[in-house]
Design a protein that fits this description.
The complex is a heterotrimer. Chain A has six helices and no strands. Chain A is mostly helical. In chain A, helix 2 runs antiparallel to helix 3.
Chain lengths: 155, 179, 659
């Protein structure tokens, strides 16, 4: 019951928080800021990005990140800042590290497995002998073919 | 034999997944482990409650083992946690320092007067920047800091007597024996 | 009284489900005709009592019976009628009841429309479905009873989450569940076939229409969910790779592979064990989705109340159903003979490529969804795997699929001469090459290579399908033949055609929206103008307005293009009486080529307001694609082959009777 309540509150009942109060000198900074906010998780309303969330902490973080970007910090600097405080969890895009190689290269592995399976099935198929019909079966097949409607272009 | 082995593969994969799902049931997906563990407490210097010309910094707290508690009057869990902190302070087993997070000074003063003040000192973080540096994402949060100013443990959520007795206080005693 | 009747009906339904799960199945194994014959009446009974139970919950909402805990949590006397009904499935317990009710509906449908199937198979299929029903009924009765009472009864309900008070959200769960549950039918057929040891073309033919209809519903459900998110959440996003979204997408991917695989098994007798495995996998993924949403294991915006105790129940159920069926598969599938052989360059090969690709994509989505859980369980730290990862993986893995879609329908079964195939595709290749060159012009792709990729893939699919149709008409006496075909002939061809064109439309939609959308955050005073994408937006201020259960600030924005007024948008910020936080209701100007999307933010003082404007080109194509695919599926199912079989059977029986 309490869980439902908490969850209902944390669902995004939000006014569209807008970012127009954050003004930058260059378009590059505006784009960086927007991208950064979109790619980070709000730690309070954990199903919303920092851009979308109405939580107080999200607003604090937006202001903090605004100051950083406006003062010339790069996107990577800001990412490092956030990760140092909140851990990798705050990033929607998992960082590329030896510990996350599995995540980034796993799908390629899946694809390779799929390709191997395909190759093996095809190789087996082409090496199988053609099934042969007995004389009786052949006659039956011919009779059936004569009697059905001709719908030759079936898909 | 080899042919029928591959038919067992889907079952094997599923059982593997099921094991992880089972483990997942005892993990809280919302809990965020702190990246500050075994790292120095981020530097801060904050004014004291009702004494804005006086400040307290992390350097002032070096040399002792203490608990740093982030709280606020608007936080319901902090209200629930408070008696535990007051009892802890009364038992004088470990020092408590408080950071009043994004709060109203007057309300905080009234709160502490009415409910008791377990803190050696209460700092005020009006803008929430220190809280961000500490990686706070919800009050109350408590940090266990050793003599060298290194964060050894972080607890998100209200402290309970059992948590104190079973885990925190033994660790405090152990850390005190370190130089 | 009504809630008690509802609860009692659930218990009766459970008893009937237990009977249905045990006796007909046992009867099918021991040739007990009378026990097998029990299946159909039991299915009818199950449905009747589920309907009564469901009806009781609906009635409780309509009567504002707040003594029922679920109604008190999700209902409200001021809720409009439509939402009082949709509140029935707005939260955990009620949505379970909907699931179980729809399952009983599908079970009834099989009982009613299976005259041409052997009784042994019908008995087994119905038993399997009843077994699933038992799981859901037990789950409800033990852990999540929708009819639980609350005492004392509150005077007013807490209200349905305002986010759910939207027509799209009202239909989305029923449609989605019709899909999930519908795949239980394919699952049932697969298990029945494994038990019987007979996996032949006839089995595939029987399964196919049921599976396709389930797939159509799932397609519609997912499309609706995406459209609702876009419409309602104020952020113009239409897919977030949220774990629960993924939980619906995975069965869809594997389900798509399944309907294609069924085609091969039906026509060529090949891919038998593949098809069975896909049927098991699709339903398993549906159940897995149920687990993920309700157990609190993953971080998701969709998650219902999370309760680890409930999680354990579902996990056990999952292990029984999925583990049991995969064990059965491991035991029985090896003895299933493989069907017709096929050459390297055959339609079977292309469909196999299709199946494998779809499975790989589904595996990728599963991997990404579970990765945070796996990492944390293994102690490797807490990470997020979010939309950036999924988007990249999706873009890498799916182009090959688009290529296969173009070639597959053109190829023949069993064997193709490479030169012949190339000749068939030559015109399409030429058109695609021309489009490729055009798409690389900077003026067209604005420096985004992904735009070129999207255009090329979509062009390839459309060109190859138009060419396919042209060749078909040419062999068939022109356009008249097309009409004839549609009326009496192979609708399944046109269904496939439409669905594949839908894929092309989807590619255009996502390419356009992802690469060319524009977003502007503005501070505007009444009378102020803003420009975006060649349109002029004039903000005309905000007035207060009242809704049935909310109060709103309604903004007014007029849109001009080349000086001419083309529309007026009225975005709102609503405060529902039952909630404290305000909610955004965006306003959208819709045409086929673009959406213009305006949402109202905070008042900034002095009559100024924060506004967000979006330009979203081609976004409607995404949902048009879902509609095309669903229509294609429906067209396929209405193919006369599925009706002719029954006619022939009844004629033969009549002839025998007279003899």
């Amino acid at each position: 019951m309490l869980a439902t309540l908490l969850l209902a509150l944390s669902l995004s009942l939000h006014a569209a928080t807008t970012l127009e109060q954050f003004k930058f000198d260059t378009q590059r900074q505006t784009d960086d800021f927007r991208e950064l906010l979109g790619q980070m998780r709000c730690l309070v309303c954990q199903n919303e990005s920092l851009a979308a969330s109405n939580a107080d902490l999200a607003q604090d973080l937006r202001e903090e990140l605004y100051e950083q970007v406006a003062s010339g910090k790069s996107k990577q600097d800001v990412i490092d800042f956030m990760v140092a405080r909140y851990g990798d969890f705050v990033l929607y895009k998992p960082p590329l590290r030896p510990s996350t190689y599995l995540i980034w290269f796993g799908p390629i592995l899946l694809f390779v497995i799929g390709a191997v399976v395909l190759a093996r099935i095809l190789r087996r198929q082409t090496s199988l002998p053609e099934p042969t019909l007995s004389e009786e079966d052949r006659k039956r097949a011919e009779a059936l073919l004569e009697s059905t409607d001709s719908d030759t272009q079936s898909s | 034999m080899k042919r029928s082995m591959k038919f067992l593969l889907p079952l094997a994969v599923f059982l593997g997944i099921a094991v992880f799902l089972y483990r997942g049931l005892s993990i809280d997906p919302h809990a965020i482990p702190s990246p500050l563990i075994d790292k120095p407490l981020p530097p801060f210097e904050l004014p004291l409650l009702n004494q804005p010309d006086k400040t307290l910094s992390n350097r002032d707290l070096l040399g002792k083992v203490y608990l740093l508690n982030v709280w606020a009057t608007w936080c319901i869990s902090c209200r629930a946690e408070h008696p535990t902190l007051v009892a802890l302070a009364r038992s004088q087993q470990v020092d408590l320092y408080g950071i009043d997070w994004k709060d109203d000074d007057a309300a905080a003063t009234v709160w502490l007067n009415q409910l008791g003040d377990p803190f050696q000192a209460v700092m005020v973080d009006k803008k929430g920047r220190t809280a961000i540096d500490l990686g706070v994402y919800g009050a109350p949060e408590t940090f266990l800091v050793d003599k060298k100013g290194v964060v050894r443990k972080k607890y998100a959520g209200a402290l309970t007597p059992s948590l104190l007795n079973d885990e925190i206080l033994p660790l405090v005693r152990q850390l005190r024996t370190e130089s | 009284m009504i809630p008690e009747i509802g609860n009692f009906s659930l218990i009766v339904a459970l008893s009937l489900a237990i009977l249905l799960a045990v006796f007909p199945l046992w009867g099918s194994l021991n040739n007990r005709y009378r026990w097998m014959r029990m299946a159909r009446p039991l299915a009818v009974g199950l449905f009747v009592f589920m309907a009564i139970s469901f009806g009781c919950l609906v009635a409780s909402f309509l009567n504002d019976d707040f003594s029922v805990l679920y109604v008190a949590t999700n209902g409200n006397s001021k809720l409009p009628l439509m939402y009082k009904i949709s509140a029935v499935w707005g939260a955990h317990e009620g949505s379970l009841l909907l699931w179980a009710f729809l399952l009983s509906g599908w079970t009834l449908a099989i009982a009613m429309f299976s005259r041409s199937l052997p009784l042994q198979m019908v008995a087994r299929v119905l038993s399997v479905m009843a077994f699933v029903a038992i799981g859901f009924l037990l789950f409800m009765l033990i852990t999540s009873n929708p009819f639980e009472r609350i005492f004392p009864a509150p005077l007013e309900g807490r209200d349905l989450n305002p986010l759910l008070q939207d027509p799209g959200l009202a239909i989305h769960p029923p449609m989605l569940y019709m899909g999930y549950v519908g795949f239980a039918v394919a699952f049932g057929f697969a298990i029945a076939a494994l038990i019987g040891g007979k996996l032949d073309a006839a089995w595939a033919r029987w399964s196919r229409p049921w599976t396709t209809v389930a797939w159509v519903f799932l397609t519609g459900g997912i499309g609706l969910g995406s459209w609702w998110a876009y419409d309602e959440l104020g952020w113009g996003g239409w897919w977030f790779w949220d774990p629960v979204e993924n939980a619906s997408f995975m069965p869809w991917l594997v389900g798509t592979a399944l309907i294609h695989s069924l085609a091969v098994t039906e026509k060529r007798g090949a891919f038998k064990s593949w098809t069975v495995l896909l049927a098991i996998a699709t339903f398993s993924l549906s159940l897995l989705g149920t687990f993920l949403v309700r157990s609190g294991v993953l971080n998701s915006v969709h998650a219902f109340a999370s309760d680890p105790a409930r999680g354990v129940f579902i996990l056990v159920f999952l292990c029984l159903v999925v583990g049991g069926s995969l064990a059965l598969y491991a035991w029985r599938a090896p003895s299933v003979s493989s069907g017709g052989t096929f050459g390297l360059l055959s339609r079977e090969t292309f469909l196999l490529v299709n199946n494998l690709l779809l499975s790989v994509v589904a595996a990728m989505v599963l991997f990404g969804t579970l990765a945070p859980l796996i990492y944390e369980a293994m102690g490797w730290g807490k990470i997020s795997v979010g939309f950036p990862w999924f988007n990249r993986m999706f873009v890498i893995l799916t182009p090959l699929l688009a290529v296969a879609i173009g070639v597959g329908p053109m190829s023949r079964w069993k064997h193709n001469d490479p030169k012949w195939l190339f000749a068939q595709l030559r015109n399409a290749l030429i058109v695609t090459a021309i489009i490729a060159v055009i798409s690389l012009l900077p003026w067209v792709n604005q420096g985004h290579l992904l735009v070129s990729l999207g255009l090329v893939l979509a062009a390839w699919i459309v060109a190859s399908h138009v060419e396919n149709l042209r060749l078909r008409i040419r062999n068939r006496r022109g356009i008249q033949a097309v009409w004839q075909d549609l009326r009496n002939g192979s609708r399944s061809y046109y269904g496939m055609w439409l669905a594949h064109i839908g894929v092309a439309a989807f590619i255009i939609g996502i390419t356009g929206v992802t690469n060319f959308e524009i977003e502007r955050d503005l501070r505007m005073a009444p009378g102020q103008k803003a420009e975006m994408a060649g349109y002029e937006f004039v903000f005309e201020g905000v007035v207060k307005s009242m809704g049935p259960n909310y109060e709103a600030d309604r903004g007014r924005v007029s849109i001009y293009q080349d000086g001419e007024k083309i529309g007026v948008l009225e975005p709102e910020k609503r405060v529902y009486f039952s909630q404290a936080k305000p909610m955004t209701e965006a306003a959208i100007d819709i045409t086929w080529s673009r959406d213009l999307y305006v949402s109202l933010g905070e008042p900034l003082g002095n009559g100024e307001w924060a506004l967000r404007l979006y330009y979203k080109p081609f976004v409607r194509w995404i949902w048009a694609a879902a509609i095309l695919m669903a229509l294609g599926g429906l067209l396929s199912v209405s193919d006369r082959r599925y009706r002719i079989l029954r006619r022939k059977v009844s004629v033969r029986i009549g002839a025998e009777a007279r003899a």
